[in-house]
Design goal:
It is a single chain. With 152 residues, this protein is mostly helical. The protein has one domain. Helix content is 85%, strand content 0%. It has five helices and no strands. Helix 1 runs parallel beside helix 4, helix 1 packs antiparallel against helix 5 and helix 3 crosses helix 5.
């Protein structure tokens, strides 16, 4: 009986720690999958990038992230930290396939219409920007779903 209770306690602890790991990493995981996919699709369309083009890609991705962050914080006057419900974050993050696919699609579109060297910087920028914007829509949808659940 005591061995079973200890096993149950360990299972509960493991699940709690798993939830903590998911909460702290889900956004970064989605972004990592997306930016890897964006780099891969640009490579598939444009061919292997040179070192300079890789840096242009990273610059574009970082610039769009910085621009959205500046906008979201009203030029860094407001904190990004909000006490969002963990259930909303978990549900919104599980909807990330839409933001990931949209962002990789945006990178592919850029590669098809913009010359390769410019396409690397614009592709990184577009992929990050689309990812963040669609992820915001996914979080909004998750919030509405959770609000609806709370009403029931």
């Amino acid at each position: 009986m005591a061995a079973q209770r200890k096993s149950d306690d360990n299972s509960v602890l493991l699940l709690r720690e798993l939830r903590l790991a998911l909460r702290n990493n889900s956004g970064a995981y989605g972004y990592s999958v997306m930016i890897t996919g964006a780099l891969a699709v640009l490579t598939a369309i444009n061919g292997s990038p040179g070192a300079g083009q890789v840096f242009l890609f990273m610059l574009g991705a970082a610039l769009s992230f910085a621009a959205v962050e500046a906008l979201a914080t009203r030029m860094y006057r407001r904190s990004l930290r909000e006490d969002e419900a963990t259930k909303v974050i978990a549900l919104g993050s599980s909807l990330n396939f839409g933001s990931i696919l949209s962002a990789v699609g945006a990178a592919a579109l850029v590669a098809l219409v913009i010359p390769p060297t410019a396409g690397w910087v614009v592709g990184g920028f577009a992929a990050s920007l689309v990812y963040l914007l669609v992820a915001a829509v996914e979080m909004s949808l998750a919030r509405r779903i959770e609000e609806h659940r709370d009403l029931e």
